[in-house]
Amino acid sequence: MSMAVVVRNVARTDISVVDALAEFGVATVHEAQGRTGLFASRLRPIYRPIKVAGNALTVEVAPGDNWMIHVAVEQAKPGDVLVVTPTSPCEDGYFGELLATSVVAHGVRGLVIDAGVRDVAALTEMRFPVWSRSVFAQGTVKESVANVQVPIVCGGAYVRPGDVVLADDDGVVVVPREQAESVLERSAAREANETDKRERLAKGELGLDLYSMREKLAQRGLSYVDFVEDR
Amino acid sequence: MSMAVVVRNVARTDISVVDALAEFGVATVHEAQGRTGLFASRLRPIYRPIKVAGNALTVEVAPGDNWMIHVAVEQAKPGDVLVVTPTSPCEDGYFGELLATSVVAHGVRGLVIDAGVRDVAALTEMRFPVWSRSVFAQGTVKESVANVQVPIVCGGAYVRPGDVVLADDDGVVVVPREQAESVLERSAAREANETDKRERLAKGELGLDLYSMREKLAQRGLSYVDFVEDR
Amino acid sequence: MSMAVVVRNVARTDISVVDALAEFGVATVHEAQGRTGLFASRLRPIYRPIKVAGNALTVEVAPGDNWMIHVAVEQAKPGDVLVVTPTSPCEDGYFGELLATSVVAHGVRGLVIDAGVRDVAALTEMRFPVWSRSVFAQGTVKESVANVQVPIVCGGAYVRPGDVVLADDDGVVVVPREQAESVLERSAAREANETDKRERLAKGELGLDLYSMREKLAQRGLSYVDFVEDR
Amino acid sequence: MSMAVVVRNVARTDISVVDALAEFGVATVHEAQGRTGLFASRLRPIYRPIKVAGNALTVEVAPGDNWMIHVAVEQAKPGDVLVVTPTSPCEDGYFGELLATSVVAHGVRGLVIDAGVRDVAALTEMRFPVWSRSVFAQGTVKESVANVQVPIVCGGAYVRPGDVVLADDDGVVVVPREQAESVLERSAAREANETDKRERLAKGELGLDLYSMREKLAQRGLSYVDFVEDR
Amino acid sequence: MSMAVVVRNVARTDISVVDALAEFGVATVHEAQGRTGLFASRLRPIYRPIKVAGNALTVEVAPGDNWMIHVAVEQAKPGDVLVVTPTSPCEDGYFGELLATSVVAHGVRGLVIDAGVRDVAALTEMRFPVWSRSVFAQGTVKESVANVQVPIVCGGAYVRPGDVVLADDDGVVVVPREQAESVLERSAAREANETDKRERLAKGELGLDLYSMREKLAQRGLSYVDFVEDR
Amino acid sequence: MSMAVVVRNVARTDISVVDALAEFGVATVHEAQGRTGLFASRLRPIYRPIKVAGNALTVEVAPGDNWMIHVAVEQAKPGDVLVVTPTSPCEDGYFGELLATSVVAHGVRGLVIDAGVRDVAALTEMRFPVWSRSVFAQGTVKESVANVQVPIVCGGAYVRPGDVVLADDDGVVVVPREQAESVLERSAAREANETDKRERLAKGELGLDLYSMREKLAQRGLSYVDFVEDR
Q: DSSP strand E in B26-93: where?
């Protein structure tokens, strides 16, 4: 007997915060929150360049069974991103053009799935952003129930409904809802700080000097020798 | 002592049926024939978007040895697609610009290979469609014979010479020759059926209602609860 | 106690030889030097088409630690390509937009790394050529010293500082410094030889005849039979 | 600036419940809690047969850096099992004979690590149970701090300090602390239920009859035909 | 609508031939039939040493769904070996102690599965031979029908019901039913031939001489030089 | 035209040094030489416990072609260990019982191969130590020449003929010939140093104190907090 549950009306992160986070890249946001929240690198975008930010609408699915994605659509609110995880590893094509058409009609901005998708030519033409583990035409059944809008592990990251999911060419990161505003501030600060560095580096200043690394390098045992030809 | 054979004048699927199947995607055709015939997802296209349909010209090759591809060219008929499988796993670059030039001259439409290819910049410029396991410049020798135009397993799929091979951005599927016409009909029926669904989903109708899923979901034990903040 | 060393003023291959090699593809050069020097196929370009040739500036890095790349920048000379290998397998994002800005200012032409990179949207926009094992936003620390400009194994290839590294859509190959000129000559000879073949193959001449393969095939036991329908 | 924390005096599951759970296998307990809590199959035991149950002592480690395992030892209580996860994928040998000697002295019963271990000959002789992603002699540094006794994701499973970790030849499962007693009861019930089934199956009764599957199979479209020789 | 079928009373290979093949190893039989029929090396035994030969009882299963194994038991005849393939890649634990108890009662000698198994401690104690892709406790459902006793691709090998499956520490090989007797003869001849070679090699005779390789090596361009110290 | 060479009478490391190194484990020796020389963790022993040390007899082989192993036997001297690397990735069974019989007759102590082996039941019974990438019965041909006793990259490690290869349950490490004596001394020193530590750790002394880590941990930002129940 399954005991699966759909949690309705989950609290989301304020959409203005979500949209503001979308101004930054995944690498920046990941750094700004102490290098946490990254999804595994096996989740790759189906086209490039690509970018999305939204509130996580979390979905568990059985292997080879995409029924719960259909269930999840009803729970969608504008600004959501579907975050789908199979209950055991699977690379089947859980999601294609029809489902994309459906979720777009409900304001869903994109899909992050630790499994496969299909119809990627159509999804690319629609510019519907997807990060997936595989591209695979294999169809799925609708027989097993599982949870929707509960905390999940997807691509090795712990994601709660309503957390912010940000994804770009580099991959996917999750920002916990209650930290979204402070991460936003720190992302902005980090980027401001990088502007100056970028200019100095572009002029040829060495990171060794910019970051004052030489003394620490010597302490750790780095030494310099000159090249001698006869190898 | 090797006992390899080349089968000449293999019967092909009628080219008009092949070309008609090319109107549909791999996902559709795979569904239309009962979710069978897909190649493993490790076979990826070298560029996108991409599409081909043709009659399978099957080739076995020894690991690190592309001799039999040269042998296969002589057996090619316009509308064929090369389907190449190594007798043990190998990712060497079995196929490049010269072989592509040669097979195009004999009417070959594309290549599906559970191994590697090279010269992919040139192949892309030629728009010669290729699905491969890897891109690898490693050269191959010409020392071992193997079978041409016999039934093979390629990418986990069982393929007989003259079966239809259809491939697009989603991957590769094989349609048995004797089923090609009926699969074509069912693909058309399936696509027609999807047009109406797509429109209704685009207007926001839920799959839950369109497919009448609610009762079965309840029977399987799915329940709904409202979100409570303090997790 | 670490005992890491930076070798200064390493001898490079003459830049005119390097640039001349860039006229040829990785597959051609790999063949021209006896099918040696290829990097593993897991090193893939971050965009396509892509091409670079340069003198190897070799860098060892600890897992999750990109400190030595900063050290290496000071050793760069115009025409160098960074070749970076982790001392144990790692897919973290060792290199991004800031480092790219820095190395470009010092004349570095590209990066080959058997680990991960990030900011690939920006790197693509800059057209800074990169071959990497993964794309991953994971940040790295600056705590452990390692060697710069010593012989390394990267992607399974043995690379010495100042060797030529050539990379394109097919992958990466290293040419030992002392063989660069002769490999250049043989690459040119090989390509000249292929022009005639390409033309004959394009006209439909079979490789079987062009390469006189039929007798050897028969000796190795290949036979021909005609197709009989009733499988 | 790192902001790592060690949480002291974490509440554990009652050790009598932990020990009672050890009477059951991982497969049984996983089923008894609704098929949740399994670690990825890449975590394999270093010897067999093998079995352990304990309270999770959770440890984050930087790639190539085992410092936090040393920190964790001080937090150990008898009956704990170390659960170690790297902050990015790493297969280095984080744990060997010396650390095993140390943790055994503090009552630690075993190790689950989504990374590598070394000295496995000695660990096997000590009969110190370990489940790891790899066996690799690669040494680690002690430079980066990370969290100890906070909730982590290890092998794709979400684990909180003080949860029960059960592991055997089949792999690893986590039981949330607050559910440990009820899972224990359900495990016992499940096993009792299986005894009768096992006897009937051993006598040759078919699962088809024991589980009354025939009608449902027919409804789903399964049919029977007799073999005809001429394939 | 599923259209799955169970084929009853499939013809088997004569059991005396099957048992005689069991005298030989997988490597020998694979060679004796022209280096064909090997399953992929990812199928590994759950204990060692191990050996089985039997008639293939073929089973297709949906991902995460072991229903058809229950269906297959009814079709078993003494001397059969279950050969199970998922319709898309899956590593769930399709088979454990209860199913082993059941199939043993029906004369099944072992299991080859391109997916996962569980209860491996119990299976090992029962000495029930299993070759699988993974060990994973993940449970499976019983919702989707698929074919039993039809030709399948398992581990990349094409297997028809009633073919001989032979498996040992080296892996798994299939022998087509109609070739079983001749393969048996050739296996015996091959092994007889090796006895003499083994004795001569054990006495120190070189393979270079035993197989008369020196001339061919020279023709292919192998040369000998003496070591010079100063590399 | 191949240009392969066999180097005869390569200088070896003094066998007494080799044998003395065999007293230490791979992990210890790897540490003693500055954490260098490890082979990739994909090279696993075919049985356990296992141990060997010897002088590297290096062999390149073409994919699917074991000819050069036969050539190498003639170059063997008592105390050698075969180190075999394919020129492109291959998992075929290059080595089995007959070759083992032959090399043992020439004093070869074991095999390290970045490819596959077969007859592992027999090799295990003979207690012939092997570390390989795979176990696979796939046979190989004898058609392509390659180099013997030249420097190679095997499993990502750079190995020269006559270097010491040490392998145990943890994997494989190479010690450069000219460093063998000093690495031996440092290994002994390292092990002596560990004896005292092991005793203190066994008595419950914390690594935090034994290694005086507390101050550095605090400086790096580690803090301690007490557990609060209500998560």
A: 44-45, 51-61, 80-86
